[in-house]
Design a protein that fits this description.
By secondary structure, the protein is mainly α. The protein has a domain of about 55 residues. It starts with 5 loop residues before the first helix and ends with a helix.
């Protein structure tokens, strides 16, 4: 068993610290990327499931921008909730 001085311990941590800091900064970006991909997939599924509803809204006179606004607001709501 060997004793390590605090100076040696600090030197060993200093050699690891830059990688640790880089990883800690990349984690939130990775989480945002995964969350964005999940939200995109979810919105694709929602639009595919509601194709008939979109057709009915268009048939009774809803504009393209009104339908787009519905899906954007729904996506924002789901994004804020997650």
């Amino acid at each position: 068993m060997s004793l390590i001085s605090s100076v040696e311990m600090a030197k060993s941590y200093a050699s690891i610290a830059p990688a640790d800091i880089t990883l800690s900064f990349s984690d939130p970006f990775d989480q945002d990327l995964v969350g964005g991909l999940g939200l995109t997939g979810l919105m694709d599924i929602i639009v595919l499931e509601r194709t008939r509803e979109i057709g009915v809204m268009r048939a009774i006179g809803a504009s393209h921008s009104a339908i787009l606004q519905i899906f954007i607001s729904e996506g924002l709501l789901i994004g804020f909730m997650s």
